[in-house]
Automatic annotation (TrEMBL):
<dbReference type="Pfam" id="PF00903">
    <property type="entry name" value="Glyoxalase"/>
</dbReference>
<dbReference type="InterPro" id="IPR037523">
    <property type="entry name" value="VOC_core"/>
</dbReference>
<feature type="domain" description="VOC">
    <location>
        <begin position="10"/>
        <end position="138"/>
    </location>
</feature>
<protein>
    <recommendedName>
        <fullName>VOC domain-containing protein</fullName>
    </recommendedName>
</protein>
<dbReference type="InterPro" id="IPR004360">
    <property type="entry name" value="Glyas_Fos-R_dOase_dom"/>
</dbReference>
<dbReference type="InterPro" id="IPR029068">
    <property type="entry name" value="Glyas_Bleomycin-R_OHBP_Dase"/>
</dbReference>
């Protein structure tokens, strides 16, 4: 670990690639309980919002067109088979189990706690495009608040209050471990002994996961089958809240392909992921 302060503040949005736009949009609206902010069937895009203000974008690839002219400059795509997690308030796991059961959605439960921690269950299931979803309970009164606090659970759908984590695959695992902290400033937390699996805290410094913390995370591993048979995402597009000037300085020094405009900084990672960095004020626009 390093004592250097990370310029990464929080997780803002994730973009998923889907093969049936309306089916995926309905799933996230009716089953998960997100609010549809924009739906463009001709363009093949849907934007949904969490109560925290974070967003989920769905892109359906359509020949001879791109879902985002701006992000297409660096070949942005929606992620394939992305494993990602959402926050639910502590004490609502049974409610989530029952809700998924009512919709006929099978789920798997795994205790993710370390040996010295109380049980910390993850609830895993799939969306219609075979992205791997996870629910984790968080203590909404925890003092380790992220920049974007959890929202309020909706009256319908799952008791989701925000994004929690994104898991991405990297073919060159060793290069990734060096690049993510150096080229972007992600705060490295830990690595597993028996797997090529690294965890980065999306905040100013590395913090321990578990114990129902509302902090958010970026997981990075080599192409492998993870928990609940889920894979890390490929060619994912992810947006982070950040000190954009500080990230841009690192990116310039690294020589990575990028551009910056009035919206933020967009970088093409060598593994094909596209990372966007925007200021906190972006959420208030």
């Amino acid at each position: 670990m390093t004592s250097e302060v990370s310029p990464i503040l929080d997780l803002f949005s994730l973009t998923l690639e889907v093969n049936h736009l309306q089916k995926a949009c309905d799933f996230y609206q009716q089953v998960v309980g997100l609010k549809v902010q924009a739906l463009d069937e001709k363009q093949g895009t849907c934007t949904l919002e969490f109560s925290s203000g974070q967003q989920l974008h769905l892109w359906m690839p359509i020949t001879r067109q791109v879902p985002s002219e701006r992000l297409s400059q660096l070949g942005a795509r929606g992620g394939s088979h992305v494993h990602w997690a959402m926050q639910i308030p502590k004490g609502t796991l049974q409610q989530a189990r029952e809700h998924l059961g009512q919709h006929g959605i099978p789920w798997q439960e795994i205790d993710l706690a370390s040996g010295d921690q109380p049980a910390d269950l993850g609830l895993y299931f799939w969306d219609p495009a075979f992205h791997g979803l996870e629910l984790r309970e968080v203590d909404v009164q925890d003092e380790r608040f992220p920049v974007v606090p959890p929202g309020q659970a909706a009256e319908t759908g799952l008791p989701v209050v925000g994004l929690r984590e994104v898991a991405l695959a990297f073919q060159d695992y060793a290069a990734m471990k060096q690049r993510l902290p150096e080229a972007y400033g992600f705060a490295f937390l830990k690595e597993m002994e028996d797997r090529n699996f690294a965890q980065f805290t999306l905040g100013p410094w590395p913090e321990r996961d578990g114990l129902f913390t509302p902090r958010r995370w970026l997981y990075a591993w080599d192409p492998q089958v993870g928990l609940a048979d889920m894979l890390g995402g490929e060619h994912a597009t992810v947006t982070f809240l950040a000190d954009v000037d500080a990230v841009e300085k690192r990116v310039r020094q690294s020589g990575l392909s990028h551009f910056r405009d009035e919206q933020g900084l967009v970088v093409c990672d060598p593994e094909g992921h596209v990372f966007e960095f925007v200021p906190f004020e972006f959420m208030q626009d």
